[in-house]
Amino acid sequence: MAVLPVNQPHFIRSNQKDEYYLGSLRSCASDVFQIFAGARRWLEWRKEVELLVELAYFSLTTFAGFQTLGEEYVNIVQVDSSGRRVPSRGRRAALIVLHTCVPYLLDRGLVRLELHLQTASEGFRPQDTRWLPARSRVSQRLQSAVSRLSDQQRKALLQAIYLLRQVVSFLHRLHLGIFYLNGSYYHIAKRFTSISYKFLAGPPSPQLPLHTVFGRTKALDSDAMRPPLLLGVHHGMVQHKGRMSSLPGDVPAPTTNLLATLRLG
Predict the structure, then answer these.
(1) What residues form DSSP beta bridges with 79?
(2) What is the mean pLDDT of residues 12-33?
(3) 162 in helix, strand or coil?
């Protein structure tokens, strides 16, 4: 099985597949949480539930040394900066923390600080009242520190928080633009941990499940996002059932040995 570099479509399809399954898991976890705790509690703890789902997903895949469902979907594997070895357990743990926990903590910290500043300076009462009681020691110290600030300092700090949000958003867009230029590190966390990917090119296993697609064909599930043209013409793993009449503008029905014919031509 050959090991080849990974291009942008592999990264994008892998991320889309992971987001699809993460969305399904978040939905299921939210439904279960609402059943046992109610909708009001779910609104208060929605971010924490989503964080636990992401931690569970990546812990059972990346941290355990397995491919995520998205990585398995496009047949890519994680490698370290050398490009020859699987990342160490510590590097994989750092990747998970940077990818899930750091954005959550940054968002929650800014939200809590902004709420304290608005409450102290303007008497503004936000809808998210869960952060206002400030029962923890961290919140009490934060509230005490905010109360000692002058109105001008609070306003300046609020503007700094707004600018910080804009900077973070700009960095995300800049990183995405760099990814489309050089084709590596789709996520910022992978850039910090120097974790990249390699594509495993090889014949598909005949034991993999098949599913029916357009044109009375059966294709591997890992190719479900490919267009029918690629499924019907360019992949030798396609198994055809019967013949399909050609329509104007459509791809003609492939023959039994079409892939070999294309290669010879």
Answers:
(1) 196
(2) 95
(3) helix
Locate 222 and state its tokens: 């890992």
**Res. 7: pLDDT tops 50:** yes
DSSP state of 129: G
**Order of strands across the sheet with 196-201?**
2-5, 196-201, 76-79
- pLDDT tens profile 52-98: 999 999 999 999 999 999 999 999 999 998 888 999 999 999 999 99
Task: Tell me how far CA of residue 190 lies from CA of 92, 106, 165, 167, in angstroms.
Answer: 9, 18, 21, 20
- Terminal-to-terminal C-alpha distance of the chain: 25
Q: Give me the residue label for tokens 């910022």.
A: 188
Is the dihedral angle over the CA atoms 98, 13, 238, 240 positive or is it negative? positive
- The H or E element containing residue 155 is helix 151-182
Task: Spell out the residues 6+ positions from residue 68 whose beta carbon is closer than 8 angstroms to its own.
Answer: 14, 18, 57, 58, 61, 62
For 157, the enclosing helix (H) or strand (E) is helix 151-182
Quick one: pLDDT band at residue 14, thresholds 50, 70, 90?
very high
Average pLDDT for 114-124: 73
DSSP 252: P
